[in-house]
Amino acid sequence: MSGATLDGGCDRGYEMSPCLWGRDPEPVVESLAQRTSLEGLRVLDAGCGEGRNAAYLARQGALVDATDISELALRNARRAWPHEPGITWSVRDVLTQPLPPASYDVVVFDSVAHWLADEAAVAEAVTALQQATRVGGWHVLCSFNDRAQELANHVNPPRCILPHGTLVGHYLNPDWELAEVHDDDVVSSHADQPIPHRHSVTRLLARRWGAG
Questions:
Q1: 76-125, pLDDT tens digit by residue?
Q2: CA 120 from chain center: how many Å?
Q3: All residues at 6 or more sequence positions from 10 whose CB lies less than 8 Å from its CB, including other chains
């Protein structure tokens, strides 16, 4: 997502596979849809990759702005979901292109934080996305954390793997209420690392109640 990181970190994989991360949405995205109707809500999928969350949310009736820094990710997304109504695909970097304040009902920030340059960039991005969220709106954040990562065979490993508590800490203030917090283990394999490997992942769902 950061302009300083050029392709966001995953373009090698996007070149190797037309659907690098699969087609199923993040479990916390599905959990959000079970909690509330998404019909007509404005959603920002910030760092949408190939669109698995955006497509799911659009099928729930949401109007989704699906953005990514990677042209290749968006190329794959348009090919994977050619007929999905309610999605606008665009290149965007929230660290360099300000978002309108209080303009979204839902913001998804999935598997992006660990590709940013450092902890300061993560804090800056999360703050920008929080400010773009309406009071009563929701955030989904998913990111690798530093508890357990098998990265030995990764050609291009993630850049910024933070503690679980640091990621959750962005929502420990009076303006936000945490609805779900998970520290999960995920076994993954994909085109640029086909050997199954484990990641610890922070997943959270939070709701904005304050306007501060």
A1: 999 999 989 899 999 999 899 999 999 999 999 999 999 999 999 999 99
A2: 17
A3: 20, 49, 70, 73, 115, 156
**What count of Cα atoms within 13 Å lies in the side-chain half-sphere of residue 141?**
30
pTM: 0.90
